[in-house]
């Protein structure tokens, strides 16, 4: 058979299969046939963020109100009993979308077939510990869990690292799980993004849902750069730049930035515990937008593997403005960067370079 005819036949068959598939999905929706459950792993599930996030996932906050889920909960042996308690409460809550709960201390069982991995588990900094001690414990955990995920998670599993140092843990996970596409490994800076939206909304006394397109550049640490240069507010007379409405560059270039940078520490000071409900909510926002897409004209901040955009060297997990469509994120391109921003973006990149070398020295 001639090649052109063969190609034509393949195209026709593919078109018919795709059409048939669309019709089946449409019929399933009409007949209210349930979607297949998505398997979501939460590590450190007996901890604070774990306790806040699992009911959100089971209620559809992360993946939508029509998406059944099976929760895979992982923690370590000393937390096994508490983990079982979380499982008992999930059963008692009788969430209609929750189709199963696996609670385990075995990373292989936990990672088996998961489609989404929310990595919260880690070693918190304790009194008398140096930064390097915490880094050493956490990067070792992320190195070990990288291989469990690589071997046992579902193909195309999307990974979100929350545990600190979040960017560097995500980088280590990426480097030790080379078969997971780098686009599938991200870290949480959405909490910082939401904090920036919250500060602008408080300052202007507007609804937070009317503020959009702030950016968190860099590390989830006090060197992050919360940038409002492209942010807008929906007003009764259309969209207006945040800078124009706030009309106080001194506040925006100083206090606003440090408030967002230091918000995690302020929460720890007030609660004697680190943020949990806002972190869990931001993690749901991160995964929901990644899987279901960002609204037209809106971007969000995600820690992703740098491709060199905005002069940030590849080889770092750095927070950028991204839009998401059909389960894929892309970095927003072409934003104008002034000198003030450039210096702040480079300073946080420099910290990530230092963290990376510290992490590798801990692994040697
Ligand atoms: N990126 C962010 O925006 C953000 C925000 C808040 C907190 N955090 C970080 O998230 C992490 C968790 O915070 P938390 O308040 O839930 O802490 P937590 O101490 O309450 O819980 C951590 C849990 O991880 C478990 N754990 C420890 N080692 C583990 C391992 N190897 N495998 C699986 N589980 C393990 C612990 O037993 C514990 O249950 C911390 O590192 C915190 O600094 C990040
Ligand atoms: O746990 C912390 O150190 C703070 C946390 O990352 C936060 O931003 O709230």
TL;DR of this structure?
NAD(+) binds at residues 44-50, 75, 138, 162-164. With 364 residues, the chain is of the alpha/beta class.
Description:
With 364 residues, this protein is of the alpha/beta class. The protein folds into 2 domains: 38-187, Rossmann fold (3-Layer(aba) Sandwich), CATH 3.40.50; 190-362, L-2-Hydroxyisocaproate Dehydrogenase, Chain A, domain 2 (Alpha-Beta Complex). It has 13 helices and 14 strands. It has helices at 3-30, 48-58, 80-92, 107-111, 131-152, 166-175, 190-204, 242-246, 249-253, 255-261, 263-271, 277-292, 339-363, and strands at 38-43, 69-74, 98-104, 116-119, 158-161, 185-187, 211-212, 215-217, 225-227, 232-235, 238-241, 300-305, 317-325, 328-331. Strands 3-2-1-4-5-6 form a 6-stranded parallel beta sheet. A 3-stranded antiparallel beta sheet has the order 7-10-11. α5 links the parallel β4 and β5 (158-161). The N and C termini lie far apart (59 Å). Nicotinamide-adenine-dinucleotide binds at residues 43-44, 46-50, 74-76, 79, 120-124, 141, 162-164, 166, 188, 191, 220, 274-276, 279. The chain crosses the membrane at residues 6-28, 40-58. Substrate binds at residues 125, 131, 164, 195.
- Classified in CATH, the superfamily of the largest domain is Lactate dehydrogenase/glycoside hydrolase, family 4, C-terminal
Radius of gyration: 22 Å
Strand order of the largest sheet: 3-2-1-4-5-6
Overall, the morphology is globular
Question: Approximately how much beta-strand content do the residues carry?
Answer: 15-25%
**DSSP strand tally:** 14
Structural class from helices and strands? alpha/beta
Identify the CATH class of the largest domain.
Alpha Beta
Largest sheet: 6 strands, parallel
**Low-confidence segments:** none
What is the mean pLDDT? Answer: 93
The first-to-last residue Cα distance is 59 Å
Number of domains: 2
Helix-residue proportion: 40-55%
Q: Note the total helix count.
A: 13
Hetero groups: nicotinamide-adenine-dinucleotide, (2S)-2-hydroxybutanedioic acid
* Second CATH tier, the architecture of the largest domain: Alpha-Beta Complex
Please provide the ordered H/E string of secondary-structure elements. Answer: HEHEHEHEHEHEHEEEEEHHHHHEEEH
């Amino acid at each position: 058979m001639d090649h052109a005819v063969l190609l034509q036949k393949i195209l026709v068959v593919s078109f018919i299969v795709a059409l048939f598939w669309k019709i089946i999905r449409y019929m399933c929706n009409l007949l209210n046939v349930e979607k297949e459950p998505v398997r979501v792993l939460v590590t450190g599930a007996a901890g604070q963020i774990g306790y806040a996030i699992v009911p959100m996932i089971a209620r559809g906050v992360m993946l939508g109100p029509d998406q059944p889920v099976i929760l895979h909960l992982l923690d370590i042996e000393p937390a096994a009993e508490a983990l079982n308690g979380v499982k008992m409460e999930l059963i008692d809550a009788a969430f209609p979308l929750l189709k199963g709960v696996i609670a385990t201390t075995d990373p292989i069982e936990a990672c088996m077939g998961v489609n989404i991995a929310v990595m919260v588990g880690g070693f918190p900094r304790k009194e008398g510990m140096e930064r390097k001690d915490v880094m050493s414990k956490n990067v070792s955990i992320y190195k070990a869990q990288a291989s469990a995920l690589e071997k046992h998670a579902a193909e195309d599993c999307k990974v979100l690292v929350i545990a600190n140092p979040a960017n560097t843990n995500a980088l280590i996970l990426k480097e030790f799980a080379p078969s997971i596409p780098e686009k599938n490994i991200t870290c949480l800076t959405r909490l910082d993004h939401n904090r920036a939206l919250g500060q602008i909304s408080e300052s202007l006394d507007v609804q937070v849902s009317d503020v959009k397109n702030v950016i968190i550049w860099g590390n989830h640490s006090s060197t992050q750069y919360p940038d409002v240069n492209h942010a807008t507010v929906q007003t009764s007379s259309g969209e207006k730049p945040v800078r124009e409405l706030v009309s106080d560059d001194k506040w925006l270039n100083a206090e606003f930035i440090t408030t967002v940078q230091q918000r995690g520490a302020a929460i720890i000071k007030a609660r004697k515990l680190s943020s949990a409900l806002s972190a869990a909510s931001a993690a749901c926002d991160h995964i929901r937008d990644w899987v279901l897409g960002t609204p037209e004209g809106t971007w969000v901040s995600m820690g992703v593997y740098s491709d060199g955009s905005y002069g940030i060297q590849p080889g770092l997990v750095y927070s950028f403005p991204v839009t998401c469509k059909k389960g894929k994120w892309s970095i927003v391109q072409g934003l104008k960067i002034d000198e003030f921003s450039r210096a702040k973006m480079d300073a946080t990149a420099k910290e990530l370079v230092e963290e990376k070398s510290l992490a590798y020295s801990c692994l040697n």
